[in-house]
Write a structure and sequence with these properties.
Number of helices of chain B: 7
Number of helices of chain A: 15
CATH architecture of the largest domain in chain B: Orthogonal Bundle
Oligomer: heterodimer
Helix content of chain B: 25-40%
CATH architecture of one domain in chain A: Alpha-Beta Complex
Number of strands of chain A: 25
CATH superfamily of one domain in chain A: Succinate dehydrogenase/fumarate reductase flavoprotein, catalytic domain
Largest sheet of chain A: 6 strands, antiparallel
Strand content of chain B: 5-15%
Strand order of the largest sheet of chain B: 2-1-5-3-4
CATH topology of one domain in chain A: Flavocytochrome C3, Chain A, domain 1
Distance between the termini of chain A: 31 Å
CATH class of one domain in chain A: Alpha Beta
Strand order of the largest sheet of chain A: 15-14-19-18-16-17
Radius of gyration of chain A: 22 Å
Distance between the termini of chain B: 59 Å
Structural class of chain B: alpha+beta
Number of strands of chain B: 7
Structural class of chain A: alpha+beta
Number of domains of chain B: 2
Radius of gyration of chain B: 21 Å
Shape of chain B: elongated
CATH class of the largest domain in chain B: Mainly Alpha
Bound molecules: flavin-adenine dinucleotide, iron/sulfur cluster, FE2/S2 (inorganic) cluster
Largest sheet of chain B: 5 strands, mixed
């Protein structure tokens, strides 16, 4: 079998690479920077699996229900079924790779996370992502030594080589030598979320520029559900980005409050007695947005963790406490923590089916850059799971002869890496900022047709600039697709709340939003769920 | 606030570098070296004190919250993370930014730290079979998993030379995770490599102790790894099986 090109070396990319290697198939693990620097290392609170370790009669079926409900019934049910059924196996495998999951009396334990009634989230303090990444990176290293995984760190994706409607290879540029090469073979895009469309405004990394998605979109690859952007309820600003306060803070007993008449009002507990502070993130962020605009309330929401047991701080949240003291000089054990919603996750992305195939034969996508598993709103702890499972599933499909073998049987060995000159992908920060301001003003927590229209006009204006580079035009087109998707969905669902269409409309919109780019123009359509 | 910088500039493929003096202003009181570099790169009209265009300054960053190690560089001569160095902490003198010196410079402040990853591979730092410990008794696995591969510890280590046999703390920390999860590491290949390429090469000068930006408890890891991989002692009883 051809060497598979994997673009991105976070959880999804590593998972794909080791799955291929376990089956004797080699891959190129292409990433702008090494795995140690990917966004996956930032993940904090944990990974979900119905292991039922807490004696609460948890099951994959309940995990499925919570995920579908949390995503407001927009996720692909078959894919979510596979995900939740495989979750216990995946977490056990990670434990076998040496992830130091939290234990009590020698047994692994799980914590509460948003939108879930059972303690289903396996974790390692609030450094779960780093622990998973270290274990998987070490595991992959063994295959590197065996020659099955070829690392190309410091290499950026440039564009896909598409001929006769099939992906034949990928152009990749070495940041060190500034040379571009073409690597033949199928590809799995694992390039993370669209953070680069919102520079300085997300909890993620600067590395996930969204370049891969933008270029693929402009090359004709279909996107899905782009309007669904997750605002995490509890973030604070630090120089250059938003810093996350993990949902684990609320999972372990933290409470959101606002000052009303000089008193603390725990609004989430009053408004949603069942799940309270642990409602899904879309609901919490929306209520926070509303509560600070009420005339009888203060304009700041606080996270109150002052009543947490000292043992929780010691064993489960020690790193979170250090972070608050470091950046805010506030000890959350004794004082209220000011928090605001911030952009955290992109539910939408490259359109894939349950096997992680995209609309372009020969191209797969997994992890945050794909649209899979989370519907209109992602539950905390499901994205690391989705990244590991997605990478694995894409790899398995290739191993099983995916695309009816069409792509794999195309021997393109003659296309050895060659030097070609292509645009450098360097992005003007000023234009990026301008695009971002249009997207932010239209795609906030509450949205209106008028706001979206104004931003579309702004982006349209930018697109008329004749001097645009090919790369930036691709970015603008994907930005336009996000706005058009938000405009077309005339209902409120999950992370997409329309002030002008406040109701959910299942009949018209319990569908996947699709965005396509043909000859430089963007079209939006809806597809029934599988 | 106005800050003066002296930034080491090297072109791609060039061996020589020069210091460029740049003035940069910000209203952000919490601005870090990383925010300054981001800000400079966002200003296409930025000029140095001789009126020369500054152009794009090459450096690496990713997380901007001291969790990925990308932005390690020498700041006033000390290896540190740019995103974890507030400008306000650097005093009044010009702030000197230079690339790490133990690694080949690619351009400006960007270095090639490939040797660190090669060392981990040569040291065979991976688990050979399923991990049977559920309990991370003394937190060794957690602590050893935290290494950013930033290279700051190697930068200050008098015994680490690229191409040399000694792999330093940056390999010792990840090795400690595997050693902690092995039953009798002294008899394994990794144990042997640990003795040769870490234990025997370390001059115990302790220069690496306070430099680690992740604040990794290196002594704790060393005590564990030396005990089991060098002295063949058991530091804890095997944990319970997972399932
Ligand atoms: C602060 C924070 C906390 C989180 N906590 C949790 C949690 O507790 N639980 C949970 O489930 N999820 C959590 N998440 C979400 C989760 O971490 C991510 O969604 C997940 O790790 C994504 O993995 P990935 O493999 O898709 O992408 P990433 O880990 O982001 O990796 C992307 C890869 O693509 C590469 N890449 C990007 N662009 C290019 C390009 N142009 N060319 C070449 N390579 C490129 C990068 O170098 C990188 O290797 C958190 C996220 C953040 C930011
Ligand atoms: S103790 Fe000294 S010689 Fe040993 S690793 Fe640290 S700096 Fe290097
Ligand atoms: S031990 Fe510390 S200083 Fe050394 S590479 Fe790891 S994180 Fe960096
Ligand atoms: S950018 Fe990640 S440590 Fe500085």
């Amino acid at each position: 079998m051809d060497t598979i090109n994997i673009i991105g070396a976070g959880l999804a990319g590593l998972s794909a690479a080791v799955t291929l290697a376990e089956n004797g198939v080699s891959s190129r693990l292409i990433s702008s920077q090494p795995s140690e620097r990917s966004q996956s290392v930032l993940a904090e609170g944990g990974i979900n699996a119905a292991l039922d370790l807490m004696g609460e009669q948890d099951s994959p079926a309940l995990h499925f229900e919570d995920t579908m409900k949390g995503g407001v019934y927009l996720a692909d049910p078959e894919a979510v079924r596979n995900l939740t059924e495989n979750a216990p196996r995946i977490v056990r495998k990670l434990a076998a790779l040496g992830v130091p999951f939290q234990t009590e009396n020698g047994q692994m334990i799980q914590r509460y996370f948003g939108g879930q009634k059972k303690r289903r989230t396996a974790y390692a303090k609030t450094g779960t992502g780093k622990m998973l990444m270290t274990a998987l990176t070490d595991y992959a290293r063994k295959f590197e030594a065996d020659g099955l995984i070829h690392r190309l760190h410091h290499h950026d994706f440039v564009k896909a080589d598409i001929r006769d409607g099939i992906l034949r290879g990928v152009y990749v540029r070495d940041r060190y030598t500034e040379e571009t090469a073409l690597h033949s073979g199928p590809a799995i895009a694992c390039a993370g979320g669209l953070n680069g469309f919102f520079p300085g405004r997300t909890t993620g990394t600067t590395q996930n520029t969204g370049h891969v998605q933008a270029v693929l979109f402009s090359q004709g690859v279909r996107m899905a559900n782009l309007e669904f952007i997750q605002y995490h309820p509890t973030t604070f600003g630090i120089s250059g980005k938003r810093c996350l306060v993990s949902e684990a803070a609320r999972g372990e007993g933290g409470r959101l409050c606002v000052l009303r008449g000089g008193e603390k009002w725990y609004f989430m507990e009053e408004l949603y007695p069942e799940l309270g502070n642990l409602m899904p993130r879309d609901v919490v962020s929306r209520e926070m947005y509303r509560v600070v605009r009420r005339p009888d309330c203060g304009d700041q929401v606080f996270l109150d963790m002052t009543a947490l047991d000292p043992s929780v701080w010691r064993t489960k949240l020690s790193d979170l406490r250090e972070e608050c003291m470091h950046y805010l000089r506030i000890d959350p054990a004794s004082a209220l923590l000011p928090v605001e919603p911030g952009i955290h996750y992109f539910m939408g992305g490259i359109d894939v089916d349950a096997r992680h195939r995209t609309s372009l034969p020969g191209l797969y996508a997994a992890g945050e850059c794909a649209c899979q598993y989370h519907g209109a709103n992602r539950l905390g702890g499901n994205s690391m799971l989705g990244a590991v499972f997605g990478g694995e599933t894409a790899a398995r499909d290739l191993l099983d002869g995916g695309f009816d073998g069409g792509c794999l049987s195309l021997s393109t060995g003659c296309l050895s890496p060659t030097s070609v000159s292509l645009s450098t992908g360097c992005l003007s920060p000023i234009s990026a900022e301008k695009l971002s301001s249009f997207l932010c003003s239209a795609l906030g927590i509450l949205r209106t047709e008028e706001g979206i229209r104004q931003s579309l006009e702004g982006v349209g204006e930018m697109l008329r600039d004749e001097a645009l580079t090919e790369d930036f035009r691709a970015r603008l087109l994907l930005g336009e697709a996000m706005l058009r998707s938000a405009s077309a969905r005339r209902e409120s669902r999950g992370a997409h709340t329309r002030e002008d269409y406040p109701e959910r409309d299942d009949r018209a919109f319990r569908k996947t939003t699709l965005a396509e780019c043909r000859d430089g123009s963007v079209t939006i359509s809806f597809r029934d769920l599988p | 606030m106005i800050y003066q910088f002296e930034i080491s500039r090297t072109k791609h493929g060039d061996r020589t570098s020069r210091l460029q003096r740049i003035r940069w202003e910000t209203a952000d009181e919490s601005a870090t070296v990383a925010s300054a570099l981001t800000g400079m790169n966002a200003d296409p009209d930025l000029r140095d004190e001789n009126g020369e265009a500054v152009g794009h300054i090459f450096w690496e960053c990713s997380c901007l919250q001291k969790k990925c190690g990308a932005c390690a560089m020498r700041i006033n001569g000390v290896p540190r993370l740019a995103c974890d160095t507030p400008l306000s902490s650097l005093g009044k003198k010009p702030i000197r930014l230079e690339p790490l010196k133990k690694f080949p410079v690619i351009a400006d402040l960007m270095t090639d730290r490939q040797i660190m990853f090669d060392n981990l591979r040569e040291m065979k730092i991976w688990l050979d079979r399923e991990c049977s410990q559920t309990e991370d008794r003394d937190g060794v696995a957690f602590e050893a998993s935290r290494c950013l591969q930033c290279g700051c510890c190697l930068e200050v280590c008098p015994n680490f030379l690229p191409g040399g046999s000694f792999t330093g703390t940056a390999a010792c920390v990840p090795a400690s995770r595997i050693i902690a999860e092995m039953e009798s590491p002294a008899q394994t290949e990794l144990g042997c490599l640990y003795r040769k390429r870490i234990y025997e090469g370390c001059g115990k000068s302790l220069s690496c102790r306070n430099i680690c930006p992740a604040g990794i408890d290196i002594d704790k890891l060393l005590v564990h790894s030396n005990a089991t991989a060098v002295w063949n002692k058991s530091v804890h009883s095997p944990g319970k099986m997972l399932h």
